[in-house]
Design brief:
By secondary structure, the chain is of the alpha/beta class. The protein is built from 13 helices and 13 strands. The structure holds pyridoxal-5'-phosphate.
Amino acid sequence: MISTSSPETLVREEIRALHAYHVPPPQDWVKLDAMENPYSWPASLEAPLAAALAAAAVNRYPDAEASSLKHAIRRAMKVPDALDIVLGNGSDEIIQIIALALAKPGATVLSVEPAFVMFRMIATFAGMRHVGVPLKADDFALDESAMMAAIDAHQPALTFIAYPNNPTGNLFDRDAIRRIIAAAPGLVVVDEAYFAFSRDSFLDEIAAFPNAVLMRTVSKLGLAGLRLGMLMGAPAWLNEFEKLRLPYNINCFTQAAATLALNHIDAFHAQTESLIRERTRMFAALDALLKPIPGALVWPSEANFLLIRVAHAAELFEALKARRILVKHTGATHPLLQSTLRITIGTPAENKLVLAALAELLKA
Ligand SMILES: *Cc1c(COP(=O)(O)O)cnc(C)c1O
């Protein structure tokens, strides 16, 4: 008999139905599964980092406002003065804060599919309904009329649009996004997690929309371990979200290290630039490798990863794993992603390894 005080009876059904977010162990693998920057902290900033961390007042609660850090963000990202900033322990926490704020009974979250999995998961955490609108097959373009129909039918309180999108890597049509924001009865969050790798942004335009905010993170910039995301938007929205932010969510070491990093953003941009060059090179190499194979292809990307379609993606994933190369098997995550793998751009040496392995495995 199940006791009345057990997790089976007390935990909400939709939470029990979830699977915990699975992160594979890193070990000493070629790790190209999680869009991490493969480069470590710049050597020129090692001594300043040690000094900044040593000077952090770890016996005190961190600066609840994180004012030095916000100042550094404003400068490094050229945030327009009209926008306020709310910080999160990763953008995941920001997604959660926004969902909690808007989770009136019966409220709906809308996003495209396939998209970043946390949009759906956090909607569930917050007790909201989630509606996913499939992207167009083949090129993963935004299906504007399907989005408009979903907005009309479900009146979403909250819509997430990642720009560029994960796991497809593309930028959606900018005018279509503008029309979706205009049509949405709720708040639209433009998620620019990959801004450093993309040639376009909504940062200078977001203030023009009364119902849109913009989210970024330093995770894909080489600072995933710090856990720092930022929301930028009109004070009217951000003042409400700030009430839900736990006061000390950005710890003193993260504040010190991220402030230093953003004050020396050029060192990180240099890493990003080299990853963009590698992306161009990898795309060409994968294109040459896959094009002759019927049904196989690589999609263009504005992010730090490439999505490929190959026959037997699951077997290929396992064969790469046997060589200690970890990519993401996206093939089972959505019907539009059938037979796909997502490969994060690594160092030139790592990229060479994965290319060589793919060439050999695909020939066999
Ligand atoms: C990686 C990613 C994030 C997560 O960022 P964190 O700041 O590390 O929580 C957010 N959105 C998208 C689309 C991502 O791919």
